[in-house]
Design goal:
With 350 residues, the protein is α+β, with helices and mostly antiparallel strands. 19% of the residues lie in helices and 23% in strands. It binds 2-acetamido-2-deoxy-beta-D-glucopyranose (6 copies) and zinc ion.
Length: 350
């Protein structure tokens, strides 16, 4: 309730539409709507304690023999990738209905694969992946989205694959084909049929899909829903830098004529809050003292090094502090009756 109240108050202060049915508009590129404020402007889970992405610290990875091989269905089918779209926040490729599935790998049952999309930085020389391994990020990260169970409240599972830059040009052929569509979908909302009969397998050469990390996290965009089963493969796909560069130089976050190029489409790594990352084999043993957390963007969260537990209150307190200082601004104080009315409107319907 308090979280909802804070989110609502913040949304109102930021002049966003405040209604449960209209999600607050989030972005990657402006301080007023970027990931730094999602926990304030966005509804639901963005300030939770099981958020993604995370920095995977291999020394803390525990062995889990349940992490067997996956079974992929339709990943080699030439008619499964149907449409490629510029959503204004990512490039998304939709899979045909009931064409692709994944099971095994300790997933609770059969999952529908619904789409994949990408996260990237500003060219192949800059980090653009969401997850990190020992603080290292890659130029891009590909997310295959999967769901299981009943339509209204499905269990979500994401397969994450890192994209690394190679010094070739136009390689591999599958990624040359994929990126050849970008010029046709330069503006947000543009989409086109994928006619070149690509398969998902074609796009993941060189990835041993029996070696991966597993942890429980969230969607990496608002509303940051938790309970997402994450799989991060250890191997990366090598894509030539010229093709990686096309993402940050070809597609725009709105109409081509009046908006920035789509760059830096990633969320910063989130605190681990005591969660355990597992893999087929444990990470290399460390002797001696726990090392300090590596140089990620998640500063300000100091956990107990033994349990990793951090009280979520620190997050709420930060939000409150921000709001209190905003509320003491005299011009906002003048608007207080109006704000109160809007707040009541926000709180009452739920
Ligand atoms: C492996 O699966 C078994 C049976 O479901 C479960 O009891 C056990 O806790 C699992 N092990 C790990 C490391 O998750
Ligand atoms: C991306 O890189 C280009 C040049 O490499 C630069 O001109 C541009 O300002 C950068 N964009 C962002 C958002 O950093
Ligand atoms: C897979 O998706 C279809 C709709 O595309 C749905 O009808 C079906 O129940 C889903 N199956 C699973 C296992 O989630
Ligand atoms: C899905 O719904 C059916 C019927 O409503 C129910 O029997 C089944 O247990 C549900 N499955 C899951 C995974 O929640
Ligand atoms: C690409 O070439 C540059 C300079 O020739 C080199 O520094 C870099 O390590 C190479 N990158 C890869 C991925 O081979
Ligand atoms: C995108 O451009 C349209 C038309 O110029 C404009 O009305 C709209 O506000 C823009 N949207 C964003 C999110 O900037
Ligand atoms: Zn994603």
């Amino acid at each position: 309730m308090m979280n909802a109240f804070i989110a609502c108050l913040a949304a109102c202060l930021l002049h966003e539409v405040c209604s449960a049915s209209t999600p607050v508009s989030w972005c990657y590129h402006r301080p007023s709507c970027s990931d730094a404020v999602w926990s304030i402007i966005a509804e639901k889970d963005c300030d939770g304690t099981q958020q993604s992405p995370i920095d995977i610290v291999t020394a803390d990875v525990q062995a889990n023999t349940n992490l067997t091989a996956f079974t992929f269905t339709g990943y080699n089918d030439r008619a499964t990738l149907t449409e490629i779209e510029n959503t204004g926040r990512t490039i998304k490729v939709t899979f045909g209905d009931q064409k692709m599935y994944v099971e095994g790998g300790d997933l609770p049952g059969l999952f529908n694969s619904t789409q994949f999309h990408l996260h990237w930085g500003n060219g192949s020389a800059t980090p653009g992946s969401e997850h990190a391994v020992n603080g290292k990020r890659y130029p891009m990260e590909l997310h295959i989205m999967n769901e299981a169970g009943n339509g209204s409240d499905p269990v979500l599972s994401v397969l994450g694959i890192f994209i690394e830059a190679s010094n070739d040009t136009g390689k591999p052929e599958s990624w040359k084909t994929l990126t050849s569509y970008l010029a046709q979908i330069a503006s947000a909302g543009d989409k086109t049929h994928v006619s070149d009969k690509l398969t998902m397998d074609d796009l993941l050469p060189g990835v041993d899909r029996t070696k991966y990390y597993r942890y429980l996290g969230s969607l990496t965009t608002p509303s940051c829903d938790e309970g997402v089963i994450w799989t991060i493969f250890k191997d990366s796909v090598k894509v030539s830098q010229d093709l990686i560069d096309l993402f940050s130089t070809t597609v725009y976050i709105n109409q081509t004529t009046n908006s920035p190029l789509m760059t830096n489409t990633f969320r910063a790594v989130q605190p681990i809050y005591g969660r355990i990352v597992t893999s087929q084999v444990a990470g290399p043993k460390t002797t001696g003292l726990i090392k300090p957390t590596s140089g990620t963007k998640t500063t300000g969260f100091v956990g107990n090094p033994t349990t990793g537990l951090i009280t979520p209150r620190s997050v709420i307190k930060t939000s409150l502090t921000k709001l209190t200082s905003t509320a003491t601004n005299p011009s906002l104080a003048l608007n207080f009756p109006l704000l109160s009315a809007v707040l009541l409107y926000c709180i009452l319907p739920s």
